[in-house]
Amino acid sequence: MSASIYPLANPKGEKKLCEICQKPAKLQCTKCLVTFYCNLDHQQADWTSIHEKACPLLVSINTPVPSGTLSDQNHHHKETLKKQKCLIEMAHLEARKWVSMKRFQDVLPAALLFQHWIMRVYGSCTVELVPAYLLLAQANIGIGSLSQAQEYLSKAEWIVMKTADCSHTVLHQLHRTLGRLHAAMGKQASALTHFANDVYYAIEMFGLDSIVTSGGYFLMADVFLKQNKPDIAHSLYTEVAGSWHTHLCKLMDGISQSATQPDECFNEVQCVEADQMLSCILEFEEQCVKPRPEQLTMLAHSLAMLWLLRDNYTKALEYGKKAEVLIQGVKEQNRLRESIHNLLQHAEKNMNETANLHTADCNTH
């Protein structure tokens, strides 16, 4: 995957820099030939985070311009731009995935690649850079480098300030990350202010009951718990749980009524984030002095739907059966009871079909 760089092979005065730390490079990717590293550790970190997926695209992007007609050259330019934008989207998604999994060291190479190609395609002062800075800030918050996180957030704030009519999406993301930073610094009051702004802009963009908005409520609840205000946290958790249950029920209905595939409406990042939030709220509810059976049932049902949508039938059955037990203590919830019953049937059917296919494959081989 890598080989030593021969300094004399480079043009005079040209220095190759490490993709991760920008120090003088000693290694070069032997596949794409355009990515360099100062040591094997950084090469391996980049490979794990993003380069394994990005390398083929980088090879394609760096294909020389054909010497044909002007039309051929224009076509090549358009195709290259498409590939560059594809690379940007890939790096963005990978960085978000690592953030959701709390693998913050793995976020950095993907987010740096995301930042690099946005600069190349859109320029160094574009608002498109803000998501990259926010991901880099989140990674640094996660690994405890709060001063570095502040630097990235300052860059993001500067761009937002200089951008007329900045979208509510960008503003909600900015305030959410600022809230995370202030919470990590122990500044709970200012964290709440940023999360409140996050919720405001999310509502403006996505609506009051959106799962995007619910993420802000969840973070606010965490701050209120740290301030020893469990009642407020409880009410916010209820909002989050309700939004996710409604959203997941709609997804299930949509899939059952059409040929829509789960992956088309629910990606890996959303799944991880939803699992973390709903599991946290379920644990909180279970530890309450007076647990609410209806709320517990709804949370277990939500987690069952979540995993069914991701084709994890084992987890879907686990939470589905939990919901089936919990609903025994709930009155007048026939629709929910029926939904849980149908989910269990669906999960068991798919699990059996998967097992049969696996057995058939084993017998074939």
UniProtKB/TrEMBL annotation:
<keyword id="KW-0862">Zinc</keyword>
<protein>
    <submittedName>
        <fullName>Zgc:92280</fullName>
    </submittedName>
</protein>
<dbReference type="InterPro" id="IPR011990">
    <property type="entry name" value="TPR-like_helical_dom_sf"/>
</dbReference>
<keyword id="KW-0863">Zinc-finger</keyword>
<dbReference type="InterPro" id="IPR002893">
    <property type="entry name" value="Znf_MYND"/>
</dbReference>
<dbReference type="Pfam" id="PF01753">
    <property type="entry name" value="zf-MYND"/>
</dbReference>
<dbReference type="InterPro" id="IPR053248">
    <property type="entry name" value="Zinc_finger_MYND_domain"/>
</dbReference>
<keyword id="KW-0479">Metal-binding</keyword>
<feature type="domain" description="MYND-type">
    <location>
        <begin position="18"/>
        <end position="55"/>
    </location>
</feature>
<dbReference type="GO" id="GO:0008270">
    <property type="term" value="F:zinc ion binding"/>
</dbReference>
